[in-house]
Amino acid sequence: MKFILNRKIVETSESPGVHTLDFLRKLGLTGPKEGCHEGDCGACMVLVGNLQGDEVKYKAMNSCILPLGKIEGKHVVTIEGINIEGLNPVQQALCDEGGVQCGYCTPGFVIALMSYFMNEGLKDTPIITAIEGNICRCTGYNSILRAAEIASKKISALNVSQGRINAMIEAKFLPNYFSEISEKLKKIEVQPQLKKGTLVAGGTDLFINRQTVEDPVFLSKLGFDKIWSDDDYVYVGAAADIESIRISTELNTLFDTAKHLSRVSTLPIRQQATIGGNVVNASPIGDLTIYFLALDADIILKSNGNSRIMKLKDFFKGYKILDLEDGEILEWFRIKKEKKMLSFEKVAKRMYMDIASVNSALSIKIEDNIIKEPHLSGGGLAPIPLYLAKASEYLQNKEISPEVVKEAARIADTEVSPIDDVRGSAKYKRLLLRQLIYAHFVELFPELEVSL
Asked: Can you give the pLDDT at residue 290?
């Protein structure tokens, strides 16, 4: 297995299931720090560059939950690989603005900001999004944000006509060797993907476990990471990452997916976690699962050349029990290519980075103030991600009114069986479901707010 690590090509016989952070430690690279080993704190961040055409596109990723197999044929950059003689403008701004105290988190912040500045596609994204996956317990965040804004102004002044990376090299944001990476990556041969072993989608849950995953089979390398459409449906591959889904043109043409899924985790996790992993993990509060249940999604399961299509809502048979036969793989999802009103709500102890206490989604059509094709889902309310069939059936052909909304919430309450746990009592979760159903309708029909 080969990849470029900072300036050098690395070849290793290590298992592709080894954690990248652990491998970096073996090489003596101590810049990326181990904090949580859950992809939560960002101290271990590295840049991962993937060759796309003649350009290398970089993402900031958490090396603690990143398997080596996912960096094969790519460029991995630690904080050591960013360093030039003296400090680059990002590092200097952090020092000048007091954004550094103990320094443990600082390499991760630098990497996250560099990723933001290296991606022109993020130019319309608030800069705070770049560091939403990084935690600092010393400085507070205002000093770090001030530093980010200072560096951003310098980036904005660059002439990028010869390419963004070249402009950043000239401005001393990046070392000179970055200009050679594209040609070097073209010469690296990627080994064929294993056909048998442990199926791995994003691995953001699987690789929290400290053990090495033996013989991982990466679904993204099998081509299951695409999003496409035809005249009737939008298709989402099971290995499509959440950020790709969030910004997908195909989906945002129909719904405000970019807004809805910004509530799901943080940017580094969204760039690694996948919809297939979210669904097959079968967590009762999986955000993507709840979202696609409300879209009345179909799924396709394949095995030995045979395939079958079923509704996502029929896939869950019990706690962590799926309608999945031996040898079957969840390959893709599809939703009807039609505009609908869609709302997604989530309550968690932390707004963005936390697992939901209760989440819910609703999609509907409206014809002459009459509800058509309603689909309501809720998470954290049962042993499985729950499609609220009775409430959805009740809403069909009803005229929009406060009374209808309240009755739908009452019926939904009869369908759920929450339990007391660390995320809240059963009583609290029932209350949240009611409030989230109200919130769906208030978002879609603001005039209802005074009556609910």
From this structure: 98
Task: Kindly list the strands in the beta sheet with 8-11, ordered across the sheet, starting from the edge strand earlier in the chain.
Answer: 8-11, 2-5, 75-77, 45-52, 55-62
Q: Where in the chain is the domain with CATH 3.30.465.10?
A: 223-451
List pLDDT tens digits, range 316-328. Answer: 999 999 999 988 9
> What pTM was computed for the model?
0.92
User: What distance, in Å, lies between the first and last C-alpha atoms of the chain?
Assistant: 59
Bridge-based pairing state of the strands 216-218 and 75-77:
unpaired
Distance in angstroms (rounded) separating the CA atoms of residues 452 and 447: 10
Please report, rounded to a whole number, the percentage of residues in the chain having pLDDT higher than 90. 79
- Here the tokens at position 245 are 């889904």
Q: What is the DSSP letter of 72?
A: T
Band of pLDDT at residue 372, cut at 50, 70 and 90: very high
Rounded CA-CA distance 201/39 in Å is: 16
Domain range 2-186, CATH class: alpha beta
What number of helices (H) and strands (E) belong to the chain? 17, 18
The kind and range of the H/E element at 307 are strand 306-311
Residues 104-163 have pLDDT tens digits of 999 999 999 999 999 875 666 788 888 989 999 888 889 999 999 999 999 988 988 888
| Sole residue written with tokens 């985790």 | 265
Helices (H), 358-401: 389-395
Considering the chain, tell me which residue range(s) the CATH 3.10.20.30 domain(s) occupy.
2-186
Q: Which residues of 184-220 are buried (b: 16+ CB within 10 A; e: fewer)?
A: bbeebeeeebeeeeebbbbbbbbbeeeebbeebbbbb
Q: What is the DSSP letter of 56?
A: E
CATH topology of domain 223-451: 3.30.465
